[in-house]
């Protein structure tokens, strides 16, 4: 067992750290005005981050899941919105296309996505199908050489800015989850419209939209995998996606901790830095321990995936624990800042608002417990 990062991993971590530093100047304004970070998405493309785990043969960087986690962690320390844009694109769109797409689909869609010329979105959730993901109401009616898609998707990350959408829909209701398909849908498809942007508590510069389909014609060749593979595709995709959200939550927690630790050594009360008060020291000690434990779970989930071993339980454990640590310790980081923590310029209030979503999307904490319990009891 070796806990030391390789030279290559350290280099990618450093590159992500330098990039994240650039995110800091405008992060408060982007959060306040809910501005999508277009210029930084372009920069992430230039750095190879938009196709991080995709083989070089398809224009990606050919790196592993641990490298991906290191990049997300560094970015989320500063800007969790930019981290989730990256995570949804890489984990939820590119991974599945690379794993299960055919050669034509890879050439046509994976290449421009991996180069960052196009942005991807993953559309599973619906107004009445969130945790209960197999109860799909969106339909993809089989019309021979194409599908006619009807219905509404909800809460789609990158929803307004994406070019390519992976849309999950029910083709054969009588077959239940085995009658669900996943289709590649291009933005300009007639009958496909994008709803207004959601006004959110956190990750405000990541855009979230509903998607509406009314007799949207999608060619049969845009189905990924065999007929009825869509639900398993979504579940397998989410196993990896949850590692990305664990990394995002880890970055949020670590970012808040870095700020709180530094502040505690500057701020003086009763004639000494607040870090000299035992009550503050104990908070910092708990942060150090619990964030490191979350980091180990997250890196282990990434390592397990990279080893080619089953990783669904490890991903759920990492996501569950790290998101709870992020929520708990961003609140503590505000406490350490006192009144200054409650205003925007000290960053920790934003990190707390951003932390909350990590307990909800890509499966709520309750759903992670369900996934873990099913694994340990089967
Ligand atoms: N890998 C492969 N197959 C899987 C699987 C996995 N991880 N999990 C389930 N399956 C298969 C099962 O084997 C079963 O297939 P068979 O019947 O052929 O054996 C089939 O899928 C149905 O499985 P379940 O009966 O376990 O399904 P369920 O209806 O009980 O649901 C669930 C299970 C885990 C609760 C699932 O619905 C779930 O993950 N819900 C949460 C949804 C979610 O995470 N949504 C996230 C949306 S994306 C997002 O949020 C993005 C973002 O924020 C950026
Ligand atoms: P519900 O499923 O209605 O859950 C409500 C509550 O009941 C939760 O506390 C839940 O844990 C609990 N609950 C439900 N079932 C059970 C159970 N069996 N046992 C115990 N407790 C249970 N989806 C996408 O497809 N693509 C995206 O890109 C995407 N991005 C998102 C971005 C944001 C900002 C948000 C808010 C959501 C996003 N989602 C996305 C949707 C997200 O995955 C769902 O919101 C999430 O899965 C929960 O579904 P729900 O909101 O319908 O809640």
From TrEMBL:
InterPro entries: Acyl-CoA_DH_CS (IPR006089), Acyl-CoA_Oxase/DH_mid-dom (IPR006091), Acyl-CoA_Oxase/DH_mid-dom_sf (IPR046373), AcylCo_DH-like_C (IPR036250), AcylCo_DH/oxidase_C (IPR009075), AcylCoA_DH/ox_N (IPR013786), AcylCoA_DH/ox_N_sf (IPR037069), AcylCoA_DH/oxidase_NM_dom_sf (IPR009100). Residues 121-215 form the Acyl-CoA oxidase/dehydrogenase middle domain. It is an enzyme of class 1 (oxidoreductase). Its EC number is 1.3.8.10. Its cofactor is FAD. Residues 230-377 form the Acyl-CoA dehydrogenase/oxidase C-terminal domain. Coiled coil: none annotated. One of its GO terms (molecular function) is flavin adenine dinucleotide binding. CDD domains: SCAD_SBCAD. Keywords: FAD, Flavoprotein, Oxidoreductase. Residues 6-117 form the Acyl-CoA dehydrogenase/oxidase N-terminal domain. Residues 126-145 are annotated as: Disordered. Pfam families: Acyl-CoA_dh_1, Acyl-CoA_dh_M, Acyl-CoA_dh_N. PANTHER family: ACYL-COA DEHYDROGENASE, ISOVALERYL-COA DEHYDROGENASE, MITOCHONDRIAL-RELATED. Belongs to the acyl-CoA dehydrogenase family. This is Cyclohex-1-ene-1-carbonyl-CoA dehydrogenase.
